[in-house]
Amino acid sequence: MLWRVIAVGQALHLATAFMCSSLNIGTDVKNTKDIVNAGQIQRNGKAAAWGSNPTKKFPPTIAEFYIYVEGLAHLAPEFRVSARQEMEFHHEDEDQEVMHTWVTMNVTEDDEEVGLLDKVTVYKVTQECLDREGGHTLLLNVTFTASTCDPITVNWKKVCGEPSKPSDTFFVGFSKSSKEIAESGVVTAMFDSNTEDDTHRVSYDEDVTTLYIYTKNSNTPVYLSPPFGTSYTVIADHEVLYPSLNGSAAAGGWVTSDPMKLDIEYNCIKEKGAKEEIVLILELPYFHDLEVHFFKQCGVNKVKVKKMSWTKAFFL
């Protein structure tokens, strides 16, 4: 009789393990394993940004994002989602109460899509910053819970307001040693949104712009967050152009004195002299993020030259 009990227990354990290992979570319907793979938060690569000490950080400009979850059919109906927020650290106004609210957060089931192996449930996470003075970086998270599995918590950072401390070792330029774009963690006037009259303009015949990102002190490297989708990192009007990122800096990582290359390919759609503002967001956990503003000219109005037909040429 005892062996039957043991056998049943082992069978239940295997069944539970299978259900838990079927849970995948990602940032895209085509990649539902870049955060959680087989019920485990990834510890290396891009997904490490969502662990217990996350480096993934959303700037004040991003108020919503989506989480794609695969394998819920094996966990229903016990599966549920809970969201909470915790104060991580305080930047300014130390005389104020630390625990007052800086952001409202909500998680809703948004849609269901067909994935590669299973149906994917899409959750929309909204994180609206309240209008307050100073700046805070918050630790936010969502916990996925099923009675048959250990809770899985996905963490990230959300910035509200303006963290005041720049990284004084961080530089960005058009060459491996220049600093036309950012110097000592601060965007230069030519790429600052407050000086639009003097903002840098990219000509119509430049399809790709190459930037170099580096630090001047190899002993204090700076972490550059991987882009959470190109559209969040390079803000532009997609009816005019659809930018893409390439190069070693496009994947993020530790920035050292060895320059990282970032290629911005504009992929212009309109070719009638459209001028569009581009905002490149460089996220630096624990430091002030950089918003690089400039303009791209997509094509010019070209005068059409009438060409002589082969028939007319032959006649002449």
Describe the structure.
The chain has 316 residues and is mainly beta. It is built from 3 helices and 22 strands. A hairpin with a 7-residue loop joins strand 21 and strand 22. It starts with a helix and ends with a helix.
SSE order and pairing:
Layout: H1 2-21, E1 24-26, E2 36-37, E3 40-41, E4 57-58, E5 64-70, E6 80-90, E7 103-114, E8 119-129, E9 135-145, E10 152-161, E11 170-173, E12 182-183, E13 186-187, E14 201-202, E15 208-215, E16 222-224, H2 230-233, E17 234-235, E18 244-246, E19 253-255, E20 260-265, E21 274-282, E22 290-298, H3 310-315
Mean of residue pLDDT values: 75
Q: Structural class of the helix and strand makeup?
A: mainly beta
* Proper CATH architecture of the largest domain: Sandwich
According to CATH, the fold-level topology of the largest domain is Immunoglobulin-like
Shape: globular
